[in-house]
Amino acid sequence: MLIGIDRDEEALKAAREKLKDFSNVKYVHGNHDEINNILSDIGIEKVDGILLDLGVSSYQLDNRERGFSYMSEESKLDMRMDKTSTLSAKTVINTYKEEELERIIREYGEEKFSKKIAKNICEFRKQKEIDTTGELVQIIKKSIPAKFAKDGHPAKRTFQAIRIEVNNEIEPLYQTIMDSINLLNKNGRLCVITFHSLEDKAVKKAFKDACGICTCPKDLPYCVCGAVSFGKIVTKKPIIPNEEEQEENSRAKSAKLRIFERE
CA-CA distance, 214 to 225, in Å (whole number)? Predict the structure, then answer.
């Protein structure tokens, strides 16, 4: 049996059409952070494998109505993976305090000009509500010195940060990894595909902790930290796309695959 979980009902609809010839598939509108409850509701205790494909999808990026892309200037600010969610990019941009915007853009976007961007957002919205992706892009461009704007699209990091905040992508991820490992049968595997450093950092930490590495001082005769091993990391280094795959799909360039096997 294959269980497909997605926050985006449109993605589930597309999956149903693509897999219409298969009867052994269950489709769940939900979040992988709720995997314990989702499997419990289906009546499943353990599974043989889990694949977490994190981040935004190409369909969401390419659909202008979703407001994920900084390349579509007239799109409404949205960025919700789950369209039933109440928090949107427009709400974040127009209601968050300057200090909170700065923190989000700095932490989630790793943007060195986060302070200036947050300040200019707040200045702009005093005159009118920021409504479109194009308006936000122009504010960001004015906030970054020209000599630094050549390093990719200037709005890329800020858009990533706002998207992560809207969809709460980082905070629950560590626990999701631990929950997923706990749901695996013996020799079952968890495969996680990440697309930026914050996701990858959370996955690496969870995998390391799940290995149960003892943190006791070396001079102690026995372990007192209570470390418990749930399995092993299969990939010492992440699997990354080869040149051919990157040429076929430029969005795969930042992808990293890490694998954990349950004992």
Answer: 7
Q: What is the pLDDT of residues 2-54, one digit of tens each?
A: 999 999 999 999 999 999 999 999 999 999 999 999 999 999 999 999 999 99
The residue out of 147, 167, 187 marking a domain boundary is 167
Same domain, 119 and 162: yes
Q: What is the pTM of this model?
A: 0.87
* Cα distances (angstroms) measured from residue 238 to each of 35, 77, 109, 135, 209: 24, 34, 22, 37, 17
In a domain? residue 10: no
Chain-centroid distance, C-alpha 182: 21
The DSSP symbol for 250 reads: G
Same-domain pairing of 113 and 183: no
Do both 89 and 103 map to the same domain? yes
- 8 Å CB contact between 184 and 262: yes
**C-alpha torsion 41→42→46→49, nearest 10:** -120
Determine the residue type at 253.
K
In a domain, 13, yes or no: no
